[in-house]
Write a structure and sequence with these properties.
The complex is a heterodimer of chains A (400) and B (629).
Chain A lengths: L1 H17 L8 E8 L5 H20 L7 E8 L4 H14 L4 E4 L3 H14 L2 E4 L16 E3 L4 H12 L6 E5 L4 H17 L4 E6 L8 H10 L4 E4 L3 H14 L6 E8 L1 H4 L11 E4 L8 H14 L5 H20 L4 H8 L3 E2 L6 E2 L11 E9 L2 E10 L8 H7 L4
Parallel strand pairs in A: 1-2, 1-3, 3-4, 4-5, 6-7, 6-8, 8-9, 9-10
Antiparallel strand pairs in A: 10-13, 11-12, 13-14
Chain B lengths: L1 H31 L6 H18 L2 H26 L11 H21 L4 E2 L9 E4 L2 E4 H23 L1 H11 L1 H6 L4 H21 L6 E2 L3 H16 L4 H21 L7 H12 L28 H15 L1 H4 L2 H26 L8 H18 L3 H7 L1 H15 L4 H21 L1 H4 L5 E2 L5 H4 L1 H23 L2 H11 L1 H6 L4 H27 L1 E2 L6 H14 L6 H19 L3 H15 L4 H15 L5 H10 L1
Antiparallel strand pairs in B: 1-4, 2-3, 5-6
Helix pairs in contact in B: 1-5, 1-6, 1-8, 1-9, 1-10, 2-3, 2-4, 2-8, 2-9, 3-8, 4-25, 4-27, 5-6, 9-10, 9-11, 11-18, 14-21, 14-24, 14-25, 14-26, 15-16, 15-17, 15-18, 15-24, 17-18, 17-24, 21-24, 22-24, 25-26, 26-27
Classes of the chains: A alpha/beta (400), B mainly alpha (629).
Chain lengths: 400, 629
């Protein structure tokens, strides 16, 4: 009986091995991993974004005359599967670098893989501070503004509020925990008079919103920090609206201004929340206009923040590859450190000190317009202005 | 004071939503004994269809009409599923239906994204129930009040249906003893179909009624399925009143628990279930099951050790597998290592399920504990790889010893659910104890020493361990201990009558299986270089179950094939297509229909038939057992 077992195993292994395509000499390959099946609401616009970038790059002559090819894999939301995919991309597809990932733990798993296998990795979306600081390594760079940066941007606005009694609601996992921790720390530094009166930690994706809203209301805070997003946010907002939780209270909220999370709220969008996000409809810069026009022409749809992240990830990767003039990981690192490039949000730089890009975010207030949620009074916050001093970063990051 | 009343009412509203879905599951399980994994999928489809209909139809009648139409439509889908798929496999080994419904769930998750798109959908509020009612300065949403009333109303209707109609009498009779009902001339087919339809209707209604308070999205099913299972088990399987009480209990404990421990929600239901099952092994309102008349792991083909020819063939296969590094690349070798590790994991569960008759729904706990054991030893104590590999699985062993002691006091689905509860408790510890386990960011940098670092060396290591483990467990099946274990599986009463200490034997088997899983986990930690709470999670436990069932639960080592086929196919599909869940789910459904005894079980049956037709071997021995079924 076992005879068959091993035969089947060998056959599959052969199949897998045989699928390795020999790399065409004139192509440069980038490996891309994301949670396509788990988080389609984010990853579909993200995919459209990077596909647009690939098209633009190749229309402009590719990278140093070579055609850019992106090979994309799904990780199903599991770190272990992300590593299998990373291994396939590196060992079997022979990609020059890895990019992508959404969830923090997957970003860290791939970053650890990259460090071990000495592969260049450009993390697109994961927000955890650990990926550039406490668990940072020389092979890993990150595009999106980190938890710390977004918290610092929000604190700047939140500390000006008169509210003294604050409550927090955050999903019970690393992202929620560290968002709350950083926000509290920075806020208490600026406003020592603040009291933290309640915290709620619903499980990610499983909020029982009614009791949570009641519990927060019972603590009678003057302001609320929210870190939930997606379906949890919808439930929280609906219960909060019906129960009057947000009436007369300031709310500061991570990510809520991103179209991915704001648009589903439709006419139930709460007004006046201070949020980070992406008001694509009110950004009037030549860089963004060009991106918006190209995106709408290609897809007949408006971009989400995921589109920007996907687009800029591949644009950044191409810029790094072009400057390095090689696919050697050490040369890629040397090229990426300190490299500046244009983006739809203006020029960004990959910092040498911690490999974090200076891509920023928009901070504004939510409002209702024609039965839809929008961000108003939004201003772009440059990432570079919301990072701790170099001396502090040195302390946070292990030496390479 | 007003606050506590409102919090209590809020808890009741949550309980009502939970009860609707749980009652359907309880009815289906009570009568058909199907562990309907797809119950969450029906709930989700109910919500999606109701969303579409409420967007089309307008007005109060339109909204409520849409909810009911959606539930009826999904019930119709349920009937189709029952008639086309489940009817074919009622006589397959226990839990095999779980595999079918698991396959369906995978398919539905991809299908809803294809049909309704990837975005979260937010439906309308219910006409007439938009606002809130002021209660001494506290707001109670009127929709919550509607749900609070609806819960007991549905309970009452179900009670009348079961107590006052002929159909209800038959359903209750079938819940108690379905063979007897069949013997009395009741057409079981239609009874089962109608019960399934009612159960699915309730699930879909529960989903549709979430529209005014939730977002509709493609992961709704997984969010609810485990929770309703827990509620059903706490209440006692097949007991509608039990499901209601359990739903209220769980929801109220959560509503008040978060006031004191805001992080309690993540684990609360499992804690409650563990406590209830330890104190009351059949749930709050359940009754002890009568000793099974049909032996659970009835082996149509009596088990026997491999003949010497088969041994040679197995050895040859092992040698062929060992030559893989000569011609395969690094990626294929790493995939090979992963498959070998999952073979270890699957055979360990298979040992417990097939030989011991104890189906664990939380076997990943011991796999993950093995992995964490290695990570602790390597990262904190800095021990070398060999020592870690030897000592790491001991954590799995210890976990299995502690949890197994309590778990083997139960049997059947209660055993399964208690193992699930323990696994979730371990998972939440790994998830929450950030300072030690790193929380969900895991422990990184657990890479193998240089001697095992190259993919080929690691592959040989994993393959060697997998072969050793498989051989050892096989040897154990045919040892006196194995015979004793099989005796406890086939008849607990008789085995105890001949002087076997059943609980001790089962406990030992549990520890052996847990330790073996820990060995797999230890290797997995080194393969991936990191450990995450995922390694202890429900989805990994379900994967192991699927591998065992796919291979064939009535075979000696079918799990080996099950693991290879499932894992290889999974990795390949995920790499090749965006619709991997749809294809994999479809494949599983096809296997279930085509091979109702699992892949290996079916091959053995075919071989047996051929043997029977040619030489007159021992047909006398086989036939009576077959007809006894």
């Amino acid at each position: 009986m076992r005879a068959k077992n091993y035969f089947v195993g060998a056959a599959f292994a052969l199949l897998a091995g045989g699928m390795a395509h020999s790399a065409m000499a004139q192509d440069i390959k980038i490996g891309e991993i994301n949670s396509y099946s788990l988080l389609p609401a984010f990853t579909e616009p993200y995919r459209k974004g990077w596909q647009l970038a690939v098209e633009e790059i190749n229309a402009g002559g590719g990278v140093n005359g070579k055609k850019l090819v992106v090979i994309s894999k799904d990780d199903g939301g599991k770190p272990a599967d992300a590593q299998t995919a990373a291994n396939e991309l590196v060992s079997s597809e022979g990609v020059a670098m890895l990019t992508g990932t959404f969830l923090s733990n997957i970003g860290l798993a791939v970053s650890d893989f990259a460090n071990q296998k000495k592969v260049f990795f450009l993390a697109a979306e994961p927000l955890t501070d650990a990926i550039t600081w406490s668990k940072g390594n020389k092979y890993t760079f990150r595009l999106r503004p980190s938890n710390y940066m977004q918290a610092a941007m929000l604190v700047e606005a939140a500390s000006k509020l008169p509210a003294k009694r604050w409550a927090t609601i955050a999903p019970n996992y690393e992202y929620g925990q560290s968002a709350v921790a950083v926000f509290k720390k920075l806020m208490s530094e600026k406003r020592p008079d603040i009291q933290w009166v309640d915290e709620q930690w619903p499980p990610q994706g499983k909020i029982d919103a009614g009791p949570v809203v009641q519990a927060v209301a019972a603590a009678n805070p003057e302001a609320i920090l929210n870190v939930t997003f997606g379906a949890d946010l919808v439930k929280l907002v609906r219960e909060g609206n019906t129960r009057g939780l947000f009436k007369g209270r300031e709310v500061v909220s991570f990510l809520t201004g991103e179209p991915e999370y704001l648009d589903p709220l439709k006419d139930e969008t709460p007004e006046g929340w201070i949020v980070t996000g992406y008001p694509w409809y009110s950004i009037k810069t030549p860089e963004h206009d060009a991106f918006l026009k190209a995106y709408q022409a290609k897809y007949n749809d408006y971009p989400r923040l995921g589109s920007i992240v996907g687009y800029q990830t591949i644009k950044s990767a191409a810029a790094i590859l072009a400057k390095a003039g090689s696919t050697d990981p050490e040369k890629l690192i040397a090229a990426a450190e300190g490299l500046s490039m244009p983006s739809p949000f203006g020029e960004i730089t990959f910092r040498k000190i911690d490999h974090q890009s200076t891509l920023g975010a928009y901070v504004g207030k939510t409002a209702l317009k024609g039965g839809k949620g929008v961000m108003v009074d939004s201003t772009y916050k440059k990432g570079a202005d919301y990072l701790p001093s170099d001396a502090e970063v040195e302390k946070l990051r292990p030496k390479d | 004071m007003a606050f506590y009343v409102v919090q209590f009412l809020t808890g009741l509203a949550s309980a009502a939503s939970l009860f609707l879905v749980a009652s359907g599951l309880s009815i289906i399980f009570g009568v058909t004994r199907i562990v309907n994994f797809a119950h969450g999928a029906f709930y989700m489809i109910g919500a999606y269809i109701a969303f579409t209909l409420t967007e089309w139809l307008s007005g109060a009648f339109g909204f409520w009409g849409a909810i009911v139409i959606a539930a009826l439509a999904v019930a119709l889908i349920g009937v189709l599923v029952e008639m086309v798929l489940l009817r074919r496999i009622y006589h397959a080994p226990e839990l095999f239906q779980l595999l079918a419904t698991f396959g369906l769930t995978l398919m539905v998750e991809d299908l809803v994204v294809l049909v309704w798109g990837p975005d979260d959908l937010v439906g309308r509020r219910a006409p007439g129930f938009r606002g809130a009612i002021d209660f001494f300065g506290q707001n109670i949403p009127s929709y919550d009040l509607f749900l609070i009333v609806l819960g007991p109303v549905v309970l009452g209707i179900l009670w009348l249906l079961f107590q006052r109609t002929r159909w209800g009498v038959l359903v209750r009779a079938a819940t108690q003893d379905r063979d007897m009902v069949a013997a009395l001339g009741v057409n079981q087919k239609w009874l089962f179909t109608s019960v399934f339809a009612v159960g699915v209707f309730l699930a879909a209604l529960g989903g549709a009624l979430q529209i005014p308070r939730d977002a509709v999205h493609h992961a709704m099913d997984l969010r609810i399925i485990v929770e309703v299972f827990v509620v059903v088990v706490i209440g006692g399987l097949g007991s509608i009143v039990g499901a209601f009480v359990a739903a209220v209990l769980v929801s109220e404990l959560n509503a008040f628990g978060i006031l004191i421990f805001p992080k309690i929600s993540i684990i609360l239901v499992f804690l409650v279930m563990a406590v209830v099952l330890i104190v009351r092994p059949w749930g709050l309102f359940g009754k002890p099951e009568a000793p099974a008349r049909k032996t659970p792991g009835l082996t149509v083909n009596p088990w026997r050790p491999l003949t010497s020819n088969e041994r040679l063939a197995a050895l040859a296969a092992l040698v062929i597998a060992a030559t893989l590094p000569l011609f395969a690349g690094n990626y294929a070798l790493t995939v090979g290592s992963e498959i070998a590790i999952f073979v270890i994991f699957a055979v360990s569960l298979h040992f417990l399920m097939a030989v011991g008759g104890l189906a664990s729904f939380g076997h990943a706990a011991y796999f993950g504990l093995g992995a964490y054991g290695v990570a602790f030893l390597a990262k904190m104590a800095g021990l070398p790889m060999i020592v870690c590999l030897l000592l790491g699985p001991l954590l799995g062993c210890m976990g299995a010893a502690v949890f197994g002691f309590f778990a083997v006091q139960l049997s059947g689905v209660y055993f399964a659910m208690l193992t699930l509860a323990f696994a979730q408790i371990v998972w939440s510890i790994a998830f929450q104890w950030v300072s030690v386990t790193g929380g969900d960011n895991g422990i990184l940098g657990v890479w193998p020493s240089s001697w095992a670092a190259s993919p080929s060396h690691f592959y040989w290591l994993a393959l060697g361990v997998a072969a050793l483990v498989t051989i050892a467990l096989r040897a154990m099946v045919f040892s006196p201990f194995g015979y004793a274990l099989r005796a406890t599986r086939d008849s607990l009463l008789r085995s105890e009558a001949v002087g076997i200490n059943a609980k001790r034997i089962q406990w030992t088997a549990f520890v052996i299986a847990g330790t073996t899983a820990g060995i797999g986990g230890a290797l997995f930690a080194y393969l991936k270089g990191s450990v995450f709470p995922d390694n202890l999670g429900i989805s990994l436990s379900v994967d192991a179950l699927v591998m065992v069932l796919l291979g064939g639960v009535e075979t000696v080592s079918g799990a080996v094939i099950g693991a290879i086929v499932y894992k290889a196919l999974n990795i390949w599909l995920v790499s090749q297509t965006d619709l991997s869940k749809l294809v994999l789910g479809g494949f599983i459904v096809l296997i279930v229909v085509g091979f109702p005894k699992g892949i290996v079980g079916m091959l053995e049956t075919l071989a047996q038939r051929r043997r029977k037709t040619s030489p007159p071997g021992s047909p006398l021995l086989v036939k009576p057992i077959e007809s006894a079924e």
